Amino acid sequence: MLGKRLTFENLERSQEIQAWLNQFSANDVLRAKSLLCRLQFISRDEYANWLLSTLAKYSNFEPTAVYAVRKFRKNAKYLWNRGGKTQYRPAQTQGSEDLVASVISNANRKYHNCFLDHPSLDELRNKKVRHIILVDDSIGSGKRVADFIQLMTNNKTFLSWWSGGYITIHVLSYARTGQSEKFILDRTPGSNHGERKIPLSQKLKFDSDLIYDAYNIHPRWGNASQAILSLCSSNKKISKDWRKGFGDVMGNIIFYHSVPNNIPGLLFSNRQGWKPLFPNRSLPDWTIKLLGEPFAPERIETGFEQLKVSTDMSAFLKLLKAGLRTRASLSRRLDCDERITQALIDQALRLGFISHNLRLLESGYSYLCGQQSKEIEIKPNYNLYIPQSWCAGQATVQPSDHDAS
Q1: Among 43, 176, 170, which residue's Cα sits nearest to residue 99?
Q2: Fewest CB atoms within 10 A around its CB: which of 78, 117, 338, 369?
Q3: What are the helix (H) ranges across 111-206?
Q4: Sign (positive or negative) of CA dihedral 380, 381, 384, 386
Q5: What are the counts of helices (DSSP H) followed by strands (DSSP E) for the chain?
Q6: Is 129 left (phi over 0), alpha (psi -120 to 50) or beta?
């Protein structure tokens, strides 16, 4: 899987990200940065190319119906209205649905119009459609897909086709959890019983580029996964149901055209008192621009006065001074992802603070001493001071020279 990631340098130079990080305590900033560096961003072109190439596998099934999975109003009971038309689609952009429609149009030009774009019930009947493709971006819990299939099978005509084995549904998604497949199968009419002529698992099939375990977060969140999980779970400004994303999935995939709700709520929740990084579950233009701009190390100028060294550098240099030498040990002590640690190493090397074997150089010691001196607070010594209000008619409370002798 390709996609793009935010780099440490991206985090440092983005005003929007810095404003978001300012909501965290000093001890949690590195954890928050680790979370951001582990996000996977999928561009519109990458998603469209994946979908187009995947649809090619179904071009021999013509005619084939394609629907973009989306959430309907709570009072919706059917996918098609009484006239057999697909339920009302809002006039405003629908992100995934609009992009899927565009890809279907391209696929039809390439594969001789073998795909039907969100067809009506009559079109399914007249074209004798036997294969239906449901397209989603990222499937976490599986609830949205299960609800969509429920709206389809609530129609008696479609249910009869489904029960008779005339229809096969293919669920396509760029990524999905392994747990979502069972959830969807359990909530779809049918059975895998041995006496069934066509088992449910043969009528409902899944096709994804990436399948991951929702409960094993280490592969996608890295060595700092537990620190990131703790950060998300402990933030009381986010509603408990959304702290780890919908269904507690802790997803890390974000699409340019759509921000899934299974990613940590810290990123998209607009609860009062919290400013999300991706408001309204959409990717701001500044994020796309930031991901497209390569970092140029040569922009860094020399001289302590002109450098804007990250606030994490002091903690990093202190650990080197204490004798830590490996990236793994440094990451554990900093409680951050190894990508962050490597970025600090690279930055310290560029600044001339450390050698390639991770030992402090003179400039590193100078910087560290300068930072430590700023932390020292000079406090007056009040040990010999007695408030004058405590004195009874005496001009001074300090011992006289005569008494001292």
Answers
A1: 43
A2: 369
A3: 121-126, 143-153, 156-163, 178-186, 200-203
A4: positive
A5: 18, 7
A6: beta
Q: How far is the C-alpha of 257 from the C-alpha of 282, rounded, in Å? A: 7
- Which residues is 68 bridged to in the sheet? 135
How many residues make up the chain in this entry?
405
CB-based contact 173:140 (threshold 8 Å): no
Q: Which residues of 319-349 are buried (b: 16+ CB within 10 A; e: fewer)?
A: bbeeebeebeebbbebbbbbbbbebbbebbe
| Helix or strand (DSSP H, E) at 171 | strand 168-177
The answer to whether 251 and 245 are in contact (CB under 8 A) is: yes
Nearby residues of 359 by Cβ (< 8 Å), 6 or more positions away: 320
| DSSP label at residue 290 | H
Average pLDDT of span 176-189 = 94
Q: Judge whether residue 259 has pLDDT over 90.
A: yes
Residues 6+ apart with CB under 8 A from 228: 31, 34, 35, 38, 217, 221, 264, 337
Question: With contact defined as beta carbons under 8 Å apart, do 235 and 243 qualify?
Answer: yes
Residue 378 tokens, joined? 């000079």
- How far apart, in whole angstroms, are the C-alpha atoms of residue 112 and residue 185? 32
Instruction: Answer whether residue 4 shows pLDDT above 50.
Output: yes
pLDDT tens per residue across span 66-103:
998 988 877 778 888 777 677 655 544 456 778 888 88
> What are the Cα distances from residue 120, in Å, to 31, 99, 124, 125?
49, 20, 6, 9
Q: Phi then psi for 392, rounded to 5 degrees? A: -110, 90
The answer to whether 116 and 63 have CB atoms below 8 angstroms apart is yes
At residue 298, the pLDDT reads: 45
- Residue 375: how many other CB atoms lie within 10 Å: 7
Contact of 197 with 164, CB cutoff 8 Å: no
Q: Kindly list the structural domains of the chain, giving each domain's residue range(s) and its CATH number in brackets, ordered by start.
A: 8-38+219-252+259-292 (no CATH), 62-212 (no CATH), 298-374 (1.10.10)
Residue 124 tokens, joined: 């399914």
Is residue 173 within 8 A of residue 136, CB to CB? The reply is: yes
For residue 55, the SS3 value is: helix
Could you give the residue ranges of the DSSP H alpha helices within 70-214? 96-110, 121-126, 143-153, 156-163, 178-186, 200-203
